[in-house]
């Protein structure tokens, strides 16, 4: 089963964390996860996917990251 959260590069060194099922950017505590550094965005995707899996929503597999550059998946 696919992970729910992934990264999308908005411009060089600027990443957005988004929900792959809805295509919407993630918002936590009324703050959108946009314009993030690579390190921070990567850590956030890991955290969100781990939480999703622990809640039983993401299936039993280990978290994987999916990077999206525009409309092309890497």
Unreliable runs, pLDDT <50, ≥5 residues? 70-74
Shape: globular
Question: What strand line-up does the widest sheet have?
Answer: 2-1-5-6
The number of helical runs is 1
**Secondary structure: number of strands:** 6
Structural class: alpha+beta
What fraction, in percent, of the residue positions are helical? 10-25%
The biggest sheet, with number of strands, parallel, antiparallel or mixed sense and barrel status, is: 4 strands, mixed
Distance between the termini: 18 Å
The helix-strand sequence is: EEEEHEE
Q: What portion of residues belong to β-strands? A: 25-35%
What Rg do the Cα atoms give? 12 Å
What's the mean pLDDT score? 81
What does this structure look like?
Helix content is 23%, strand content 30%. The C terminus is likely disordered. With 74 residues, the protein is α+β, with helices and mostly antiparallel strands. The strands form 2 sheets. A 4-stranded mixed beta sheet has the order 2-1-5-6, with helices on one face. A two-stranded antiparallel sheet has the order 3-4. Strand 1 and strand 2 form a beta hairpin. The radius of gyration is 12 Å and the shape is globular.
């Amino acid at each position: 089963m696919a992970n729910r959260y992934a990264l999308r590069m908005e411009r060089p060194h600027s990443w957005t964390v988004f929900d792959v099922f809805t295509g919407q950017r993630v918002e936590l505590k009324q703050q959108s996860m946009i314009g993030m550094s690579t390190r921070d965005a990567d850590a956030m995707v890991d955290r969100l996917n781990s939480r999703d899996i622990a809640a039983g929503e993401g299936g039993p597999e280990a978290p994987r990251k999916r990077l999206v550059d525009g409309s092309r998946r890497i």
